[in-house]
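Input/output pair, single chain:
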Amino acid sequence: MVVILFLLGYLAYTGVQDSKSYYVTISELHKMGNGAYSKRLRVAGNVQPGSIKRTGTHVEFVLMEQDQLLSVDYTGTEAPPDTFKDDSQALADGSFGRDGVFHAKGLQAKCASKYAPKQPGNSMQAEPAKSVTQVQRPAMP
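Output:
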């Protein structure tokens, strides 16, 4: 009974350790030194325009954060989301290699234009959708 409980505890602990990841900015990643190579990390930034190179589900691109750049090599099992485009915000989940490239196994992206404020005089840009569940209630006497 003790051996079974010990094994279950060990499996639970190693499962949590394997799924744990640290969120860092690109500048923090560059400052981590040797500690960056042994941890599972999540790094966010904007996709540099013109840097996306696709081959099936394999994608190479560059993330930007102010004046910092990070080359990313995504080799996940699924194709990147449709919102993954130039200038979109992206979040890569993986590990930083000694070759200076971030090797991502997971990739999330947001559409850059969807969250931009509406420009004055530009009637072509859609406004955010309003909730269908909003109901006008008559004023109470």
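The helical segments are 2-19, 26-31. Residues 123-141 have pLDDT under 50 and may be disordered.
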